[in-house]
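Pilot study result, target chain (455 residues):
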Amino acid sequence: MQRILFLTGRLAEPALRATLERLAPGRFGWEVRQPGVQVAALMTADLIRRRLASPQGFDWVMVPGRCRGDLDALSADLGLPVRRGPEELADLPEYFGDKTHGTRSRDLSRYSVKIFAEIVDAPRLGMAAIVRRARALAADGADVIDLGCLPETPFPHLEEAVAELKRLGHAVSVDSHDEAELKRATRCGADYLLSLTEHTLDIADEGAAVPVLIPARRGSYASLARAVRAMQRRGRPFLADPILEPIHFGLADSLYRYRRLRRQFPDVAILMGVGNVTELTDADTSGINALLFGLASELGIDAVLATSVSGHACAAVREADLARRLMHAAREAGALPRGFGGGLMTVHDKRPWPQTLEEIRAVAARVRDPSFRIQTSAEGVHVFNRDGFWSAADPYQVFPHLGLAHDGAHAFYMGVEMARAEIAWRLGKRYVQDAPLEWRVADLRCRAGKEETCR
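Predicted structure:
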C-alpha cells in the first residue's frame, strides 16, 4: 500500500483525520501534518518548502486543493511527488475513487457527434456580423457554421459569406427551403446543404456539398426512407434527419422515427436538430441538452444542429459541446453519465453543503482571531469569528451583529460574500468564501477548451 502525507491547516486537521480514519483502511497508509497555518487555503508551495523537512517514508504528498504555487518545483525540492487534493474535504472520498461516489475517468477530450450551429438570420446580417457570430459559435464548440436562410428574404451575399467563412477555416452549411438558394450554396463551395427531400435530390448534383435529407412531408418516415435509398444508389455521402418535434407536437413519435431509421439503416449518418426542444421549452437548456445528447449517444447520432436564439438558450451550443463529450466518455466506459464532471449542473450541486452545522460549529469553536468566516449548511448561512457565531437565511439578519458600520471596505466585502452565500444556499450550490460561485457551462466566460471554467 502507498503511504501518503497529508498537509492541512489547524482548523481542518481534526476533520481530515476523521475522514482518513473512515476512508484509508485497506487503501493506503497516511499521516497528517500542518505546517503552522490556521487555514488550509492559505498554504503555498513556498511556505511548505520553508517549513516542511524532506519527508521520509512516504510515496507522495497531498496538499489542499487551493494551495498556490509551483508543485512541480516543490516535488523536485522534496524528492517525491506533491499533488493537489480536492478543494473541499468532503470530496476526498471521490478523489480516491470511493465507489459510493461513482468516480470515473474525466477525460472529456473526445467526442463522436459533430455540432452544426446555426446563424438563424444570416440574410439580414452584414459580413462583419456573420463573421463575429461564426467565431463565437466556433469558440463555443461548433464544428460547422450553418447559415440559416429566411423565407422570402433575399440573401445576395450568400456566396461571399460562404467564401469568407471557409477562408477563415470554418466548415459551412446552408439551411434553406428555397431550391435556388441551395443550388447557389453548393455551387459556391458550401460543405453541407440543409435540407433536401426525395423530390429535390437533383440539387445534390449541382456541387460537392453533402446533403441532409428530410421527409418531403413532415412526419413521413416512408418519404425519408425513399430519399435515403435513392442517395445510397447514387453512392454519395449524406445525412438523414427525421426531424425532432417539439413537446406536445409529436416529440415521442419523432424519437421513434430516429430509432426506426437507425435500425433500418445501421450505417447511415444521422443528424438531429435539437432546437425544437431547447428553444421551445421554458426550462434550463443544460439539462435538456444532457438528455438529448444521451439519446443521441444511444442512437448513434452523428451530428446535431443546435441554435441559440432565445435568451434562455444563449449557452446551448457550448452546452451541446460539453454534453457530447460527457456522453461519449460515459458510453466508452460503459457507465451511467455520472462522475464525469458536473459541468452541466449549472444551478444545483450534488453535495452543496460539505459540512454539517455541527461540524461548522466545531471549527468555529477553535477560531481565535477576529477574521470572519462564512460557511453554509442545510440550515442556512453561518458567519463566525472569535467573538461570535451567527446563523440566518437572510444576511440582513446577520450584518448588524458584525460591527462593521464604520468600516466601509470590510462591510462591502462581507456584503458581497454573504450575498453569494445566500444565493448558493437557496439554490443548493457549493459556496466557498473568496471564490466566485461556479455556474460551469452556463458562465458567459466559458468557451470550448477552457475546462477550468466549463467543467
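One observation from the pilot: Confidence is low (pLDDT under 50) at residues 99-105. A full batch analysis is planned for the follow-on phase.
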